[in-house]
Specification:
The chain has about 650 residues and is α/β, with parallel strands linked by helices. The protein has 3 domains: about 375 residues, TIM Barrel (Alpha-Beta Barrel), CATH 3.20.20; about 170 residues, beta-galactosidase, domain 2 (3-layer Sandwich), CATH 2.102.20; about 90 residues, no CATH class. It has 10 helices and 41 strands. The longest helix is centred in the middle third of the chain and has 20 residues. The protein is globular and about 75 Å long. The mean pLDDT is about 95.
């Protein structure tokens, strides 16, 4: 099976037309052209991971940010939820776990830049989308240019700015970006007015973003002053029904960055008002690639590591030049005057847990490492060291395009500058087992890769005609990861013999099943097994091989993520009290509640809470400490939540009215 690709057409790159960019005190600039971002005049591809400071404990921030950096994240994005900081009108709280300034300062200490998403409306599965209850009682329309609303928005922006004054890129600080609003699809005048207000208050950043998705025509936004950002999720727990959804398009190499435009010829079509978002003005940027998914009471998808990894790899192959995940780190909702989660009781279409915002993210709400953290890091290491080469390269599709419904043919695309580039291959489709492909022959720009068999659940990137120092790598059947000095790191793909050829040289083979090095002049080409590569980390300038352990660096010391299982004792008992959040246990109607008394053997490690259920709650000394809608995954919580406290588990029987996998 020969796989060839469409003709490459050099892009027309436009510079300076968006009114974005900025300089720090060292004279380094961040700029945006129509194809990619630039730092110091060089293309770069940032990796942005969402982590909500107010949904975690302040004492956890340093180690969790260090884990994010070790996972290849370079920018931390975070919502600033209005309701978390002004639940009572005129009474602001930026203390403790809500201390935005302390969080941004800690990001800088951990070597991370920051993107603040300041609303006013954010969503994030927060009550009222983050708007305070008192604001909803005002006599004017919200999310509009009504003077009453704009005055309240201005006060909110002023208070946020007070927290981050002096921490912007222009000041030498870590804040390089600001997102205005969220998912506001048909109000360009309001978005412009909000930015004008933020600028007047003092906000200043090289990057200003708005979400760009909507219909196939794209959100209506101001044409300049913003970079529209996009996303994609493996499933849709907000969908109304409880049936399995159609196969996701995110696993085929559609170049359209807007979900709704996939399969449409949007370049010629406009909406009835004549609108089409001019995608060609902007680089492909994402802010909400699903690092997992948040279960709702009626829909509980279970996301696999390959669901996340393959989707991010496909988007990168389609031209993504800002890799942004939502969520990268899960969290726990706070309790205020009310519960602060999205619910049908507040007029929203979904019920989510009172506390649990784990999101099945690469880092769990309690900081445990999930497999997608390890897989995604392979992409993040790659763009860190080779993003300057990849960013200017255009997506070129295969001549024989393979849609998401096809289980027979191999899904491929390339990114190229017309001379060399990278082949992207995805052999994973959520909810569809793909057949093994035997004898695939990749032929990008006339380069002849050796025949390969693509078997099992894999997705990978192969380089071709790539300069390695003074040498030219004609091709490699191993995934390029990173480099350190004259050493280039590769990963062997399961089922594919790792081989390579330098221009004019012989075909060379790495050993299989373990790390193997080829030394060619001043070059060392080191190929790791897939298992070894999953634990390769580069939190600073040095490469760390974890040998099966997830390593990160905090305060100059190498540390290991992960804690042992702690013994748990669970004894059935009668109801010890009326649960304070009984309504969550009744979401499926009047149900019998089973109780167990729990105790942990120590305050170290994690415990796994028992049983299948519909809704379960953990109470510690009478207060709600954790909750979950059962999605079939183990429910693990820190033993410290239980140790030395009077703890009870309340749960209702499995409910067959929800979508489960």
């Amino acid at each position: 099976m020969k796989i060839t690709f469409q003709n490459y057409t050099p892009p027309a790159v436009v510079q300076g037309h968006l009114g974005l960019g900025g300089e720090n005190p060292r004279g380094e600039r961040i700029d945006v052209n129509s194809l990619y971002l630039q730092r110091g005049g060089r293309p770069f591809i940032p990796v942005m991971g969402e982590y909500h400071f107010s949904r975690d404990s302040r004492e956890n921030w340093p180690q969790e940010l260090a884990k994010m950096r070790a996972g290849g994240v370079t920018i931390v994005s975070t919502y600033v939820f209005w309701i978390y900081h002004e639940e009572t009108e005129g009474v602001f709280d930026f203390t403790g776990d809500r201390d935005l300034r302390a969080f941004v300062t800690e990001c800088r200490r951990q070597g991370l830049e920051v993107f603040i998403r300041i609303g006013p409306w954010c969503h994030g599965e927060v009550r009222n989308g983050g708007l305070p209850d008192w604001l909803l009682k005002k006599p004017y329309p919200l999310r509009s240019n009504d003077p009453g609303y704009m005055e309240k928005a201005r006060i909110w922006y002023e208070r946020v700015y007070e927290q981050v004054r002096g921490l912007f890129y222009r000041d030498g600080g870590p804040i390089i970006g600001v997102q205005i609003e969220n998912e506001l699809v048909d109000a360009p005048e309001h978005l412009a007015a909000l930015k004008e207000t933020a600028l007047a208050v003092g906000f200043d950043a090289p990057l200003w973003t708005v979400t760009g998705w909507n219909s196939m025509y794209g959100a209506k936004i101001p044409l300049s002053g913003f970079l529209p950002v996009f996303g994609g999720y493996a499933d849709a727990p907000w969908a109304r029904g409880t049936e399995e959804l159609p196969l996701s398009t995110h696993y085929a190499f559609y170049p359209n960055r807007n979900d709704s435009a996939v399969g449409m010829d949007i370049l010629r079509d406009t909406d009835p008002d004549g609108w089409r978002l001019p995608y060609e003005r902007y680089p492909f940027a994402t802010c909400e690639l699903g690092g997992g998914i948040q279960p709702t009471h009626h829909r509980r998808p279970r996301i696999s590591p390959m669901d996340v990894y393959a989707m991010s790899l496909v988007k990168l192959g389609c031209g993504n030049n800002l890799i942004g995940y939502y969520m990268y780190h899960g969290g726990t909702n706070k309790l205020g005057l009310t519960t602060l989660q999205e619910s049908t009781a507040t007029g929203y279409p979904n019920d989510v847990p009172v506390l649990n915002y784990d999101f099945q993210a690469p880092l769990s709400q309690y900081g445990e490492v999930r497999e997608q953290y390890r897989l995604l890091n392979l992409l993040h290491l790659f763009v860190r060291d080779f993003g300057d080469i990849l960013a200017p390269m255009e997506h070129v599709g295969a001549e024989d395009f393979v849609p998401e419904t096809d289980r027979e043919r191999l899904r491929c695309a390339i990114r190229t500058d017309g001379a060399g580039g990278f082949v992207f291959v995805n052999h994973h489709q959520r909810h569809l087992a793909l057949r093994d492909v035997r004898g695939a022959e990749l032929r990008p720009l006339g380069v002849r890769f050796p025949s390969i068999d693509v078997v099992g659940d894999v997705a990978f990137i192969f380089p071709f005609r790539l300069k390695l120092g003074k040498a030219l790598l004609e091709w490699a059947t191993a995934q390029l990861i990173c480099r350190q000095g004259g050493t280039y790191y590769f990963a062997a793909i399961p089922g594919i013999p790792p081989r390579c050829q330098l221009a004019g040289g012989d075909v060379l083979s790495w050993g299989e099943g373990r790390a193997s090095a080829l030394r060619i002049g001043d070059l060392t080409l080191l190929c790791l097994s897939w298992e070894e590569a999953r634990f390769l980390r580069r939190p600073g300038n040095e490469v760390l091989l974890g040998n099966g352990e997830d390593l990160y660096v905090l305060d100059g010391a190498v540390r290991r993520a992960g804690e042992a299982e702690c013994a748990l004792t669970a004894v059935p008992c009668s109801a010890p009290f009326t649960p304070p959040f009984e309504e969550e246990l009744r979401l499926a109607g009047e149900r019998k509640v089973e109780w167990m008394r729990l105790s942990a053997a120590s305050d170290k490690g994690f415990v796994t809470l028992p049983g299948a259920f519909d809704v379960a709650q953990l109470y510690a000394d009478g207060a709600l400490a954790a909750d979950k809608f059962d999605d079939g995954t183990p429910w693990r919580v820190p033993a410290a939540l239980l140790y030395g406290r009077e703890c009870y588990l309340a749960r209702t029987a499995v409910w067959d009215g929800a979508y489960r996998e």
